[in-house]
Amino acid sequence: MSSSTGRxxxxxxxxxxxxxxxxxxxxxxxxxxxxxxxxxxxxxGQAHSLGAGSKDAVNADDVDLVVVAAPxxxxxxxxxxxxxxxSRAIVTDVASLKENILRQVHAHPESARFIxxxxxxxxxxxxxxxxxxxLFEGRPWVITPSADQHAAQEVVERLISTVRAxxxxxxxxxxxESVAATSHLPQIMASATAARxxxxxxxxxxxxxxxxxxxxxxxxxDPDLWGQIIEGNAQALDALLGEVIDDLTQLxxxxxxxxxxxxxxxxxxVRKGQSGQARIPGKHGSSAQRYVSxxxxxxxxxxxxxALFDAVGLLxxxxxxxxxxxxxxxxxxxxxVFVIPASVDTLAQGLEDSGWVVYR
Length: 360
What we know:
It is an enzyme of class 1 (oxidoreductase). The protein is an alpha/beta fold. The chain has 3 domains: about 10-170, Rossmann fold, CATH 3.40.50; about 175-275, 6-phosphogluconate dehydrogenase C-terminal like domain (6-phosphogluconate dehydrogenase C-terminal fold), CATH 1.10.3660.10; about 290-360, ACT domain (Alpha-Beta Plaits, 2-Layer Sandwich). It has helices at about 20-30, 40-50, 70-85, 100-105, 150-160, 170-195, 200-205, 210-215, 225-230, 235-255, 260-275, 305-315, 345-355; strands spanning about 10-15, 35, 65-70, 90-95, 115, 115-120, 140-145, 165-170, 290-300, 320-325, 330-340, 360. Strands 2-1-3-4-5 form a 5-stranded parallel sheet, sandwiched between helices. A 4-stranded antiparallel sheet has the order 10-11-9-12, with helices on one face.
């Protein structure tokens, strides 16, 4: 099929979890005709009630595009079934692993209608209730087409541009190796850190700060989903975990050796981490930029956070990032707002003039 007419397409989304429902919300708001399918009736009903699409049956000949948003373990199976059922539709998926799925689908005689895809977007929440129509805005969306799939690629690129994601084309092998380092290893490290908290008593946990919350935020992710992802990318993760284990083994050995220069080893590890963190791209894939923080005291009252954001907006300052921390036992919280260096004085002075308590 061709998408040259530019008309809104009819799409079937197979799977109504966080990603599938978010795709449905984004496409529905753009005027596409969206149908939903999920063996989980509760998830399907929730996605439908949120406005992600229709749960009515769809005529196979009317479908232009099928988006498979099923769990990784069954993605290839659902892709193959979709190629069989929807004989004129392009099929894509959103699974976080690509090489094994492409290998399984390649044997299908209509595999040229399949374009592997992966939106690099998500939340620590799972299921349709965590979905957002703007989840993909400014986020990378990888596709793994072959050289002779121009027509199919054009359709999937329309999907990507409609949800306002940033298209990236790469091989399936390069994709899987890359996400092992940028997504899968961080999940393992966050979960391993959070698992250490199980044995802590409440007094110890009362000392939790923003650093712990930052490191463990994604530890609340879906365990079953991540079990499938980690198993599916075992080879790439094995090499990375070996490197991490080597670093930790060296540090631990020095902690046990009174004659070792433990401080130097720890400093070197933290310094390397600092250098790596500085390489993470900024918004929209731009070069990483240094942001400056301004901390603002917020009364623990309804509407005060929204009032702060309104005040910042009136000053013409763009918030690059924000973190929130509650003060234990106090009726206030602390919002740390990150802005470009050139905006710091305008932000701090403007908020102070408006009656906010500001620290910088």
